[in-house]
Specification:
Umud Fragment, subunit A; alpha+beta; 4-stranded antiparallel β-sheet; 19% helix; 2 helices; 8-stranded antiparallel β-sheet; 186 residues; elongated; 2 domains
Amino acid sequence: MGKQKKKKSEWLDWLKALLIAFGLAFIVRTFLFAPIVVDGPSMLPTLHDRDQMIVNKIGYRFGDPERFEIVVFHASDQKDFIKRVIGLPGEHIAVRDNVLYVNDQPVEQPFLTEYNNEILTNDFELEELPGEYKTIPEDQVLVLGDNRGNSTDSRILGMISMDQIVGKTSVRYWPFDRIDIMKLGE
């Protein structure tokens, strides 16, 4: 009888341990970190289709996005997008002849390269984008894909509310030959 009671106790211990592990995994994935798979070419050459990354969900609970961070946001109820923050609240953004202007001052974009010698970004002014803002509203950001010729971003979607942002990405863990910690502006 003692042996059977001991086995039952072991099973309960294992069950408790598994429930705690699943509970912790749920909490971590829901509130702290989550995986995301890049879908499509909109962030080339920085991120490739099917790259797998970690989304830090807690970073913006304590601070706001910085220019050039790569963020994941809810584009719709079913779809999350991954793009780069280009414009911050209170700023005026324009692109002329592939030069980014923030409040009429040129800003380097070191992550952009001559991508097949094509025009990287068609010219635009903030006022021409959905919402027709003169400056980016509070609690919103302007995002663009690095592959500017093939990206659904703020030029189509308009400004992205901070409420839509899931978190920022900075760690690529797959494929193994491209494991990387992305630095701001890379």
